[in-house]
Design a protein that fits this description.
mainly alpha
């Protein structure tokens, strides 16, 4: 087994561990019903399906017309947040009289999404996941560049960065879906608005713009996106835990 294959194997193992262990802990030790995880993953599936349809109908078509990268990024981030958060709202409305969403179940709802994505990433390359999207061409260019990395740089790009990205993304999923629940508890829209803005930044400006603009073809671009993602994650996570605190002993 060559060095790159060893790194890929360790990466897959790590992603599976960080996906499965928190779920096992919450289910077995904290006694959160599996239904909480299923509902979270189900809402993600619905939201992703809708946003991919919107991506093909709007973003891909505008990309063919050479619309600006910034506009496409904002639309991509907005549609991502709109459909994923709306799907969460729909599932909560449908199930709130059939399932008790307490504090731990709320955490589990978002955690399940991050865990499911980690498992998908573990068994699929970025090239495969983005085929047919407006990011396909630039993602292939980035992959070709990263194939030539050696030594410590190879370890950083092919192991540490993917693991960090998955951990941060999971916290974002927990916090954005948690803010949806906060809106239900407080009967206010602004927590959902915060969650939507986070999506616009994460999936739009960071995930889309940094890709199509070619910034990820440089080491500096990679560092910038991970630093920005870290601070965004810290912001939304702190915001969620502060706003949910008055409702920690309340169930929806």
């Amino acid at each position: 087994m060559n060095h790159r294959k060893q790194i890929d194997f360790i990466l897959k193992t790590t992603l599976i561990i960080i996906a499965v262990v928190p779920i096992l802990y919450l289910n077995r030790i904290e006694h959160v019903p599996l239904k909480a995880f299923i509902l979270g993953t189900g809402s993600w599936g619905i939201g992703v399906t809708l946003k991919m349809i919107a991506h093909q109908l709007v973003v891909v078509q505008l990309d063919k017309k050479n619309a600006s990268h910034l506009l496409l990024s904002l639309i991509n981030g907005f549609s991502s947040g709109l459909f994923e958060l709306a799907a969460a709202v729909g599932v909560i409305l449908l199930m709130k009289n059939k399932f008790v969403f307490d504090y731990k179940a709320i955490i589990s709802f978002g955690l399940a999404i991050g865990s499911f994505e980690s498992i998908i990433v573990a068994f699929n390359s970025g090239d495969n996941l983005l085929k047919g999207t407006a990011l396909e061409k630039t993602t292939e260019e980035i992959s070709r560049r990263l194939k030539n990395t050696k030594g410590i740089k190879q370890l950083v790009y092919h192991y540490f960065f993917p693991v960090i990205e998955r951990v941060l993304s999971t916290f974002i999923h927990i916090s954005t879906r948690g803010l949806v629940f906060v809106s239900f508890f407080g009967t206010a829209l602004f927590p959902i608005v915060i969650a939507l803005i986070v999506f616009i930044i994460a999936d739009g400006l960071l995930g889309y713009y940094f890709n199509v603009s070619g910034k990820l073809l440089t080491d500096k671009g990679f560092v910038q996106i991970y630093v920005a993602l870290f601070f965004l994650t810290v912001f939304v996570t702190i915001t969620f835990f502060v706003l949910i605190n008055p409702y920690k002993n309340v169930a929806l």
